[in-house]
Each structure stands twice: as structure tokens, then as C-alpha cells.
Sequence to fold (342 residues):
Amino acid sequence: MGAIKGVGAAAVEAIIEERVANGAYRGLPDLCRRVDLQRVNRRVFEALIRSGSLDRIGANRASLTAQLDRAVHLGEQNSRAMSVGQVDLFGLSTAEDTHVEDWTEAQRLTGERETLGLFLTGHPITPYEPDLKFLVGARLVDVGGPRPAAPKLNADGERTWTAGKPATVAGLVLEIRRRPNRVTLILDDRTARLEVSLYEETFQQHRDIIVKDAILVIDGSLRYDDFIEAWRLQAKSLMDIDRARERFARRLWLRWPAAFDGPSGMSRFEELLKPYLRGPCGVSVVVSRPDYSGRLNLGNAWSIRPTRELLDKLSALAGRDGWYLVYGPRNDVRGEETSIWR
Fold:
């Protein structure tokens, strides 16, 4: 626990000493009651929650956060009572178990990265992995292939440079480094990392999306860099991955949610799609019930813009595995209309 940002050695020692002496903690109020709050303050508890260290003693991280103020208050109250010889007869050692909806995956992962320096329970790119095989040429671990042979020298003994090869990659922006007339990004896609260089002009054209923790799809020229002994991409164009998904998806297949069954179901479905209609992405639905099933391609009037907002709403209704996108080639507006659900 000492490696968690915001948690010092004294706090770790206090928590472990009390646990060894009197057993496992039964919850956040019990933890706040038993440890020395002079050594373990509120900021320590916050860091422990955000890192996932207290997952086993709470319903979820959002609930632990909602419960924290009350738990610390009761812990302080209990300490004052003990200092004057009073016995806790009125529930000073307990706090109401506050249950709230858990954080989103993005919130959870941000907390882990800020306290641990890494993503522990997932990666922000994971929800996009079904789309990556259509949007990029290769995952970062495979981009470029093996290290090329030693460079050739010309008649003057100078190195001859070969042209870079075109490549399209995607990854989370871990670092942004500014240098004179150049910007360098470090991308991570859970399989590997890649250094991406941008000329100042390219950076200025896309500066609104080049931010830390953004997931970008980047077209560029790939070349092996002997100085860093790794492949490096010279970026030519960049796009936020949600925008890329919205632009290149040609059909949305949806497993029809039970919430839309019944006579009014189609009207409710239309209201959901209404803000996103008139887009390039067709819609097809798959219905599977005990007494009937079917597949239906909706007409052009139902074509949508598959924005992140809409897809999040569909995930809430049908689950993340309840929909998927079909892509066509970037120069083909038709795309395929086939389903993986049989």
C-alpha cells in the first residue's frame, strides 16, 4: 500500500498493526473507528478507495466515497469518547451503509491511474476493442513487425533512409511532450506502447483532441528509430476514436431489448433514436423470445449517427454485448449487412 500516491508509510503501518492485533476490518466505519486517525487521515482513505484497496469492505467505490465523511466523523467521535473513558453504547462505531450506483468504468480507471500510476482492473481502450480490427491496421504490439536489417550506406558512407510505410494505429494518450517545432505522444493500447511524432502544424490542426487520456486513431508514416530502438509513427492525421467510429460505421445491429416489447415499444425506440437520426449508419434489430424470433433491417429513415452518447444509452438497455457495429472500407459508404447473431 505504500506505493499508492497519497498513502504514507505511517498510515500503512497503523492499518496493518491494528489488523494484526484485532482482526480483519468489517467495513469502512469499523476501519475508521479502529485506526489512529492522526496517522490515517481522510486523504489516505480517499486514495485507498480510489486505488481499489478497500473494495472488499464496501459495496463499491462510489458507496465507500459517499460513506466516508460519516465514517470519519464517527471515528473521531469514538476516539474522543475513549479519551475521556466513555464507552460506545449508542452506535458510535457504526454508520449507515450507504449504497449508491457505482462509478463508471472511466471514473474507476482514472482513480486507479491517479493513485497507482497504472490501470489495475481494465483499460480505457477495452470497450473499443471489437471496433479496432476495422479502424486500424494492427494493434501496437504488432505494428511495424520485427526490427529491420541494418541500414545501407551510400558511396560516401552515409546512411540511406528508406521511406516510411503507411500505418493506422489507435491508442490512449499517456504523455504529451512539447519540443521546438514538434510534439511527441506516447500511445498505449494495452498490448504495447508507441511513440508518435507530430509537426507543429499537425498539432495545431488537431490540438482540441490531443489531450491526455484521449483515445485517438492516427494515420501516419511508420519508421524504425535506431536511437530509441523502436518503431516511431510520424502522424499525418488524427481523429478521436468516437468520431472515427461514428464516421466509418455502416450498420448498427441491436439485440432488441425487452424494454421495447409491446405496442408502445417501437414509439419508445423511435424517441430514443430521434436525436441521432439522419446519419450514415443503418439499423438492424434481432428479436429472440421463447415463442418467436426474427431479424429486421430498418429503412433508411432510421439511419443514425452512432455517437458515444447513443451507444451508451443502448448499452444501458441491452448490455454492451447487446449491440455491435459493422464497418465498411473507408472509401465505401455501403458496408456489409451481416449479423454475428444466428
The chain has ten helices and nine strands. The CA atoms of residues 257 and 281 lie 20 Å apart.
